[in-house]
Structures
1.
Amino acid sequence: MSDVLLTGVVLYGMNNIYTVESGGREFRCRIKGKVLRTERIEYNPIAVGDRVDVRPDEYTPEAGWITGRQPRSSVLSRWNKKRQAVQVIAANTDTLVGVSSLRSPPFRPRFLDRLTVSAEAAALQTLIVVNKCDLPREQDTEKRLADYRRIGYEVLLCSAKTGEGVPALVEALQGRTAVFFGQSGVGKSSLLNRIEPGLALTVGEVSQKHNRGSHTTSYARMLRLAGGLSIIDTPGVRELEIADVEPEQLAFRFREFEELAPQCAYSACRHLDEPECAVRAAVESGGVHPDRYESYLRIYSDLKSFHEEHHGSPYG
Ligand code: GDP
Ligand code: ZN
């Protein structure tokens, strides 16, 4: 190792090799030693967006060693079922962009509700992007989108196909570090290609893409785009398994419950079957969308069984 110590940003990592950008150069780095021990079970000590210390390798150009990780301003995590560990998806971002589509695949607010919970847990802003607005929409979808806006989330409709709404999206991303999340097929790659035509991300039918095992869809990576945009693209997922939320804390991750919870008869009300629950009353009177409440119940039940199975240990 040389004596030179640089700092850089992790653009992506694959097979324990991390590509770190420092001073306009990209270094392929391995982790040096045990400096990166974490307090909990995280299988990846370094995530995309991490700011790290790098010692360039003396003998190999553009190679180096990660010797330390700087404190993170934010951590977005998920529970990785396959690895049975918390996986940090992105570090140091400020906005979670939930990409969905109006149709094909159908609009899935259930998925977006899980995203908003993860975003709230990581203290990130949420931007809901609804792609394929060139396709006809259902009235139910309109109502759901209006409700997301009502409770304070930013919602943008756009079409990667026609370009409609894309300038507004670029505008909204200005000055932010955003992580893009979406179920496969919603058009996330098409949208990123629209934002930056030179990207040439693979677009295709979902099944074909997975069979091909294309690079662009198998790991998260930070894209540096024109106009100073920084976007972390993640592989298309079926679900974002929530980590870092205790079942009893879940209600605090539903922002429209916040004002209501103090009005519940029980101070430790879980808003399930307790009498005189202000949240349930609001579901009846229109203050809480019934679908959001249903998401709350489902996520609560998932977290509860998870918690019992793992004795709470993976929570941060
Ligand atoms: P990803 O899996 O989210 O990255 O989705 P892709 O970008 O690969 O797109 C999946 C499919 O949706 C492709 O067939 C695209 O041509 C199509 N698609 C993407 N954006 C739009 C859009 O705005 N409108 C319509 N009608 N189709 C789109
Ligand atoms: Zn309650």
Note: The first strand starts at residue 6 and ends at 14.
2.
Amino acid sequence: MRKDIAVPKSELDSARKAAERINNNLSGRKPAYFIETYGCQMNEHDSEKIAGILESCGYVPSESKAGANIIFFNTCCVRDHAEKKVFGNIGALKKAKDEDPSLIIGVCGCMMQQKAVADKLFKRFPYLDMVFGTNELHMLPNLLEKVLEGERVELVRDMEGEIAEGLPVKRVEGVSQFVTIMYGCNNFCSYCIVPYVRGRERSRSVKSIVAEVEALSQEGAKEITLLGQNVNSYYSEDENADFPALLRAVCKVEGIERVRFMTSHPKDLSDELIRVMAEESKACHHIHLPVQSGSDRILKLMNRHYDRKKYLSIVEKLNSTVPDAELTTDIIVGFPGETEEDFEQTLELVKEVGYSAAYTFKYSPRAGTKAAEMPDQIPDDVKKDRLKRLNDVVAEGLKRGNDKYIGKEGVVLVEGCDRRGEPMAFGKLPSFKMVYFPGDESLIGTMQNVRITGTAKNSLMGELI
Ligand code: SAH
Ligand code: SF4
Ligand code: F3S
């Protein structure tokens, strides 16, 4: 839902002034920053904003932690190991900080929205300079200014998650760019921490999204991926626009050749969206549609609001309307109470759908979520065994799915060139399949007709036509 809640202008103005002051005080010196990012594309994109803000303060990028004067960790907390890694990483920087006390270390992102974790981290590592949450990103210059004056700062606010439009963004160069269309999540799947750390759903306006896409197109972007935890519930109240309407509007932007989107929740995937995918030539024929489990009993416990039958009916509709569409998914094994029989239903579903990629996870209890309190938590060795069996089934389906491309032709948007051996250009078909074919850097950013000649583990091999 669009709740028109913008970050107060006074905060944006104050941050801009702080950035100017930092810049002036540097008087031409160019200290370097390094950002390590965990988690999903939303976090990656937030890191692009952090980079943009730091550059507006006069900082320049560093290739490594070793060469940096300021190091940020943009954290994730969706699964347990992400947390452990961050604690380990900050511990490992003690020596560097002892050697150079002017080194600034900061931690931000989803994990910091859990106040108890932020406090623990701030106390445990006295040499940590700054901790802030996802709602304070735009205030980074103000926080940095305090740190440069010798303070330690911790700021994590409970907010609706107001949207800060117009922040400077330092994008990873490339023809393919991310645009966040909505923030937060209202779904409260029983295993998931995201709604607690990213707050309630709020959508940006079509106007501001299209303006951003137009600007990206002028800078050379050819492919846009619209991002949100659940893009199908995008809704701009002021403009009375839902996700299919937004998708049509973005497809109209001149210079953009392809539009992707993720993630789609099966409970909200409308017939209209499938129709737009079929009608708009720029809309890519790919849906990331996390199923999580193939067992109705487990889906109910997960609070997913669809059952196996509903999920399969969407897949069927998609296949009949957009026959070359590819599906990718997320699956959790070892959810509390998952029996061998439940798990086998997941295996069956994966065989039936034939995903072209599946991101598979062992269930990881997250404090504060319903599932963490459920009885019958599954032992780790059982989770491990199920994960392995699931990955084997996914790999078989992937191989079959890749084989059917051999001999076919398609258009690849070239993203890069791999020079480890003979120069191989690579890029995706509209369906999300990655293709490698002989070619060099001069092809980057162009659309090329290729014929598929073979397959590799996760990609296709081809030749220029
Ligand atoms: N909004 C997206 C993805 C959110 S997180 C969606 O609704 O699908 C990405 C994936 O992480 C999820 O799809 C889920 O498969 C996995 N995940 C989330 N919480 C988890 C947990 N506690 N343990 C293991 N995997 C989890
Ligand atoms: Fe988490 Fe579910 Fe929201 Fe996805 S839809 S972010 S899995 S609560
Ligand atoms: Fe992780 Fe936050 Fe994304 S918890 S998965 S980085 S929204």
Note: The mean pLDDT is 92.
